[in-house]
Amino acid sequence: MTTAAAGAADIEVRIVRDEDSEEWQRALSNGFLSPARTGEAAAEWWRPRFAPGRILGAFDGARCVGTFHSLEFALTVPGGATLPVDGVAGVTVATSHRRRGILRRMMELDLERARERGDVFALLNAAQYGIYGRFGFGPAIRYTGVEIEVARSRGPRPGVGELPVGAAIEPLTMAELVKAGPDLYDRFRVRQPGAISRSPLWWALETGQAEPSAGGRATEPIAVAYRDPGGRITGLLTYRADNAFSGGDPHTTVTVVDHFALDRTAEAALWRHALSIEWAGRLVVPHLAPDDPLPRLLVNPRAALPLRRSHEDHWLRVLDAPRAFAARTYEAPGRTVFEVADAQGYVAGRWSLETAADGTGVLTRTDDPAELALDAGALSSVYLGDATVPHLEAAGLITELTPGAAHRAGLQLRTSFAPWCPVTF
Ligand SMILES: CC(C)(COP(=O)(O)OP(=O)(O)OC[C@H]1O[C@@H](n2cnc3c(N)ncnc32)[C@H](O)[C@@H]1OP(=O)(O)O)[C@@H](O)C(=O)NCCC(=O)NCCS
């Protein structure tokens, strides 16, 4: 029987089956305060998303009161290796059943299953800052956004983004985008630490062939490609425009939907193209790496105004520390001993990180005295190079037990560029 007062023991947390689809979706929609899908719309939403064993639910009798979705990704780490990741999404608990440990039970079950599968990390986009630190997640990938006043920017500096002889910017149809995009993205993402793989469903959503999860009508963006002098497509840009006029003149806001390129030449050529769209008064780029060079390509970088909603985006949770730290590369040699606290236990204990001049590194168990003390969330925050050890030490999130250890570990873990992930899920 369903009772709003059911205790934790009355709630069953289990893997969701195909036949749970409508009940689970209703709980998901309610949890995210959105209208529920039913009938054919619900079936259509479920079909590409249902993967046996990857969706969890909490049930009070027949009523679904908690949802949890695990997605399969590969994450690129500094140096270009890719590792399996448990992407956590669709996390909700019914308002009537909150703060009784239901999220905790779903999370603990999911992390255990991820570890058994061999996933090296879990990754999520956190709706609220305070939820996931207790489960060993730390903010690890940020993004920024800019709004460029096109005329005031005076475009890219002379020579920046000019097409090399034989290169071209070409319009693409959605069919062409779906054909060229996934392979090109796979080549891009292994060059971009922090990037994750994209599913066929992601491309269907990107090209307006599938209904957006949050509701609303699917629309096709405008797409262009950069073709290099050898005839290969090496960059893509998609955008939408509002076609606004001001005082009779066009003053359109062009908003970039997706952008990536295999090299800086293609990237700059696509930005030059975007800044020369005839009616554009404003170019909004909502999702950029925090240290993306775009503003500095402009004659007047002050015309690139930061968007207020930029923030930390992805939270990482290291599940298999030796595998994670052996896979990435390092810019400085050194050795530092960490004492890691982990409530779930996966990365708890004393570890030595040894990095060599050739860029390789290993993390091994040690009994040597600890030089730095931190928790699993802080370890995850510094792993991809976004947060630095000295910065977290200054914030009181890492404790320095041996003078100079934070600086040394900072040099070991630092990267020249911040990680960036162009996929939010
Ligand atoms: C966030 C949410 C899933 C939490 O579910 P829940 O079942 O109430 O969480 P639990 O009872 O398992 O709480 C586990 C721990 O997290 C803490 N916690 C839960 N929600 C929190 C929040 N919003 N902010 C800070 N801490 C939170 C609890 O206090 C508890 O702490 P403790 O075990 O260390 O004492 C639920 O409130 C919800 O559905 N919110 C709206 C949708 C949402 O924001 N989902 C997250 C999308 S990323």
TrEMBL record:
Tagged with keyword Acyltransferase: yes
Pfam families according to UniProt: Acetyltransf_17, Acetyltransf_9, SCP2_2
Keyword check for Ubl conjugation: no
Keyword tags: Acyltransferase, Transferase
InterPro entries: Acetyltransf_17, Acetyltransferase_Eis, Acyl_CoA_acyltransferase, Eis_dom, GNAT_dom, NAcTrfase_Eis, SCP2_sterol-bd_dom_sf
SUPFAM superfamilies: Acyl-CoA N-acyltransferases (Nat), SCP-like
Domain N-acetyltransferase: 11-155
GO biological process: aminoglycoside antibiotic catabolic process
Binding sites annotated in the UniProt record for acetyl-CoA: 91-93, 99-104
PANTHER family, per the entry: N-ACETYLTRANSFERASE EIS (PTHR37817:SF1)
Family: Belongs to the acetyltransferase Eis family.
NCBIfam families: PRK01346.1-4 (NF002367)
UniProt subunit comment: Homohexamer; trimer of dimers.
HAMAP family: Eis (MF_01812)
Protein name stated in the entry: GNAT family N-acetyltransferase
